[in-house]
Model the fold of this input.
Amino acid sequence: MTSPATSTPITSLITGFVGELRAAGVPVSMVETIDAMRALEVIDIGDRRGLKETLAATLVKAERHLGAFDTAFEVYFARSPQDPAGDESGVGAPGGEGEGGAGGTGGVEDDLDDLRRSLLQALLDGDMDALQAAIGGAVDRLSGFEPGRPVGGTYYLYRTLRRLDVDQIEAMLRDVLTGQDGELGDLDRRLLSEEVGERMEELRQAVQEEIRRRLVADRGREAVARTLRRPLTEDVDLMHATRTDLAALEDAIVPLTRKLAARLARRRRLLRRGRLDFRKTMRRSLATGGVPLDPRFRSPKPHRPEVFLLCDISGSMATFARFTLQFTYAMSTQFSKLRSFAFIDTVDEVTDLFGPGTDFTGALARVAAEAEVVLHDGHSDYGTALAAFGEKYGRDVTPRSTLIITGDARNNYRPPQDELLAEIAAKARAVYWLNPEPPSYWDTGDSVMSRYGRWCNGVYEVRTLRQLEAFVEELSLPGSRNRIQAH
Amino acid sequence: MIDTASNFGSPADVMKGLADVDYLADHRIAQVAFLADRLGKPILVEGPAGVGKTELAKSLAKLWDRRLIRLQCYEGLDESKALYEWNYKKQLLRIQADEDHEWDQLEDDIFSDDFLLSRPLLEAIRSEQPVVLLIDEIDRVEIETEALLLEVLSDFQVSIPELGTITASTQPFVVLTSNNTRELSEALKRRCLFLHISYPDADREQEILLTRVPDLPEKLAKQIAGIVRSIRQMDLKKAPSVSESIDWARTLLALAIEHLDTETVTDTLHVLLKYQSDIDRATAELTRR
Done:
């Protein structure tokens, strides 16, 4: 039983690993590192899976950090190399195949066919060792791995998968699984294709892992870890998010708002105690012989702002508007009223599209299609949009209303007409501006942020979900931010 | 019973032991339970509702034949409910009973063991036999209240100003569960081993079904596990938990259904899903061709 890190003493390996976790944004304390080291003394560190779970339990204390942990673990504790003839041993894996798979043609193809069959068998048995052995062989022969060549792992991944012809493996897998179950109804077909999908994902993951292992051997841990590092979902820049990031962001919104709402509710109770509830206090005092040991208080009515949300939905701002809308609507129980408006160079109310229980993606599509937000050429014009807002909805703005404007304040060199914002601000309780650009870009080029900013109660840089969360928290419960950060 | 510091030789033992009391642990659960036992640290279990977080503590207690002491957390839980409380009424009676005694002696008297009401945490510490302490839904208490637990969790002791520090005679095995409705404090997380339990994969769910519903035909169990997995991937308000899939299996068994097709599934979906909008969505997805 050899340790997966035969060449490096385990202590320095763990230290490096912890450093990588921290670099990826996972907070790991000194005490936790020591705990991990202590834990290693009681487990069999030759068991890679056990090692991984042990490190995860001691070093990572939040589910959202597990993704970063998995990636770092793969780099720092790569599976010990299979022998170069891994493909041969793979073929010799448990027999019993023979179902499915068309006969190969020609010598090289024959070889590949054997490889596919051993992969298939390993997938069917769920035998990860056999799978890894077979994949070792596949990557050896098919990835065309060139040491020292500065390409990413994805390049080799797709190359291997293409040359392995994964579609054929998928077809073989489907055949075998269908064969086991006989006649199939609609439902069974659905279940089957999901199962096949899952197994194929396993295969893809295993190939990726194998390639990373080789990259690590070639370039060293630190270099590979650096290229694989991704910001945590809350810290992804909303303006430059990839498609995968966007999906993760979307999934993160609801849990995030739920937590925020729970936190706000608790804070509210703690911040302001209501007046003494005489009746309840007297009633309680009966238990202690008439001595009021345990005074009771009425709960105060929470302050819930009335929110007007104005979103720039022109091309560059669309993603940002989407997340602001989605987040704010998810928090709508915190506000006494929430009205939303979309604008490009004129403004239209879109509140009705986001009624309770509506499908958010559908509603957003309707905003883009139905809202009348373009008067001229489809470029943002904050000036005319503000004029239109003042004219159409200005009388609804009262000292109870809080206005939130989202956009980059890039006015395409048109007149900013910021006196209109001043007029609205004079009537409203507060005006906040959320800008998805870093402050160093404000007032450069066609950005007129400070012209608007001077009429606002606050201009916030909101480039990430974390910043958006902090803003909404501040909005719902003024002054709460510092207290929370103190923890 | 077993009273030594460590009850298990290896994670595999944990898995086997838990299986004997009908709890099917995966590798991660077994590994973390093993570590917690060996290192004497609490486990913080997190995950969606109904995946067996509480059940883990119960099963460990059953396996070791230990008493399970449970502290159910809720908003407003305070030390008088979690740690200990002085029995005011009894103290008052005692004071009234002999008025001629010197106050000094009386004071010593009324702040003694006889007037102390143990609440779950203190009870777990004072138990002669080792116990399993389950602190359920820790995320429901205020972040300030969490601090009450810290002394118990790291040093296994409770300080009572009038009495001094009470140290555990036997170390309890502590399991905390959280539904992750808020971020727990760093101090608490640092003291625990973290275990995230998510929904089991289809194979393990099938095994769980077969264990919990012994009469279930294997083929039906496989189908149920597959459909539940499929439904969990949909965008629902509340994904079906393991306990709900067990309920569903029992229902199907009671209805003498041996093979599922789209119609029987959509007819019985209300056992699995608890919101009408979820049922509608799942029905639409499953009947779509």
Summary: Chain A is about 55% helix and 5% strand. Chain A touches chain B through 45 residues (CB under 8 Å).
